[in-house]
Write a structure and sequence with these properties.
Elements (H helix, E strand, L loop, with lengths): L1 H29 L35 H11 L3 H4 L17 H18 L18 E2 L11 E4 L12 E4 L4 E4 L2 H11 L15 H9 L3 H11 L5 H17 L11 H10 L4 H9 L3 H14 L4 H9 L4 H10 L4 H23 L1
Antiparallel strand pairs: 1-4, 2-3, 3-4
Length: 356
């Protein structure tokens, strides 16, 4: 009898909670407050801009601007052996084909195209705004009615995740919108994405990240980060910035070159005015064109810099662009100038050897 009374009280409590939620949700919908973050139809978070017009001199372009993407793709490079070096499954025996020069050229072009698809850069977005913590409704009569929170999720198949209705009934009877962390867990529960866990693994804790970085597993860490987190989440941004800062500190730019993460690294360094060592690295690797493009990207993101004004005013080209940056805006101007001189000396020696 006591057991029956217990379950009857539980069912009555559940009906009370659901009834209260229905009334609150109905009034909430009527007031057009469905969106968790003020969603506006037509706004796409991860799509590239279709506007191909160049940015104005006083307005820095965003990551998705075609001019920015063109530079980032160019300086990333396509090293076919690097792109396809990871072997995750059993290797099949190689096959050998006899090809003409034309067929070989076509096969190589197809391989480069597939490599370019693998080098698609993860989007760089601003951190998502916190969800409005204002309670939807407060029901003191539900205070401590149960020992666990109630979560209400719209699991319809035709609703984008960002617009999906998710609310939480707290133990004190407050009905509120789910936080981003709660939304991510629930969406993974109802709509699982391959490779993603409901709760982030300890790997992404700062103390564990240090161990991964000491082993030079920067690329692997970023790959897992792209699977586990949304690109505008705080954890996604934190992990990426942590990796970028380690590469900047240790000058290990080669760990990400010709990977899909090099564009994001170059964007981060350029926005924060930390491209001196990267320029030196490019010049030492005989990548002068990449160095020039990196400085042009710096001028686009810092249109009021002295370098931008000098380059536009004098219509500078080639290494003169890098020299101007070294003279005007470089933090380590002397180091960059020495790298330029060493590159020019090496080029001169190579030309003399070819002519002789």
């Amino acid at each position: 009898r006591s057991s029956t009374h217990f379950w009857q009280s539980k069912m009555a409590a559940s009906r009370t909670i659901l009834s209260g939620c229905r009334r609150c949700v109905r009034s909430w919908l009527d007031s057009r407050r469905l969106s968790p973050v003020g969603y506006r139809p037509g706004v796409r978070l991860c799509s590239s801009s279709s506007d191909s017009s160049p940015p104005t001199p006083t307005t820095p372009p965003d990551f998705f601007h075609p001019a920015v993407q063109s530079i980032l793709v160019q300086i990333t490079g396509v090293d076919v052996e690097r792109v396809f070096h990871h072997v995750k499954s059993k290797v099949d025996p190689p096959t050998y084909k006899l090809m003409t020069d034309e067929q070989l050229k076509k096969a190589y072009e197809e391989t480069v195209q597939r490599a370019g698809e693998r080098l698609q850069m993860p989007p760089v977005l601003a951190e998502r705004a916190p969800i409005d913590p204002t309670p939807i409704a407060e029901n003191p009569e539900l205070d401590q009615l149960d020992t666990a929170k109630f979560v209400f999720t719209d699991i319809s198949q035709d609703i984008p995740d960002r617009e999906r209705f998710i609310v939480v009934r707290d133990l004190n009877g407050v009905l509120r919108r789910a936080t981003w962390e709660e939304r991510d867990r629930l969406l993974q529960l109802y709509f699982p994405k391959e490779g993603r866990r409901i709760r982030p693994p300890p790997l992404f804790r700062d103390d564990h990240i240090n161990v991964v970085l000491e082993a030079d597993r920067h690329e692997d860490l970023l790959d897992l980060c792209c699977i586990q987190f949304e690109p505008d989440s705080a954890d996604f941004i934190r992990v990426h910035h942590r990796v970028y800062e380690d590469i900047f500190k240790e000058k290990k730019y080669g760990l990400l070159r010709s990977t899909r993460h090099f564009g994001g690294l170059a964007w981060y360094m350029t926005r924060n005015g930390k491209i001196d060592d990267l320029l030196v690295d490019m010049l030492q690797l005989d990548l002068a064109d990449d160095a020039v493009q990196l400085v042009r990207l710096f001028c686009m993101l810092h249109p009021n810099s002295q370098s931008a004004a000098q380059i536009v005013q004098n219509n500078l080209q080639g290494l003169d662009v890098v020299k101007t940056f070294a003279e005007c805006d470089a933090v380590k101007g002397g180091v960059v100038e020495l790298a330029i001189q060493a590159y020019q000396a090496a080029q001169t020696g190579t030309e003399q050897a070819d002519t002789s």
